[in-house]
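Lab notebook, bench 4. Continuing the backlog of folding jobs that were queued last week. Each job is logged with the same field layout so the records can be merged later without manual cleanup. Today's entry covers Phosphoribosylpyrophosphate synthetase, a 112-residue chain. Filled in by technician R.K.

JOB TYPE: sequence-to-structure
TARGET: Phosphoribosylpyrophosphate synthetase
LENGTH: 112
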Amino acid sequence: MEDKEEMTSLVTALNKLRKDGYKIDFKVTEDGRLATMDDKESFAPDQVRIVDFYRFEGESNPDDMAILYVLETTTGAKGSISDSYGAYSNENIETFMKKVEDLGMNLDKGKR
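JOB STATUS: finished
OUTPUT FIELD FOLLOWS
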């Protein structure tokens, strides 16, 4: 059985994900698409699946909250995107991820 590594920091989680093949850093563009940092590929919400996510809370400051989304695309691209959590979240990322989450819920309902 594999030792469970405690995900205490964003850096620890990112290092583990990279070892697991989630190597691409994504961003959300101004026009509302998920893109690779080099802009070579971009994806609509229906081309993206949230595989997992991690929430991090700052020990000394509750404003230091973040969320890391682990993503896969229909082309097989695997990576992650992070965002502040709560009041300081990036509106573009939040809107895109909400669309992906809603699509995922609809897909799950269709399989039952």
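OBSERVATION: Residues 10-111 form one domain.
SIGNED: R.K.
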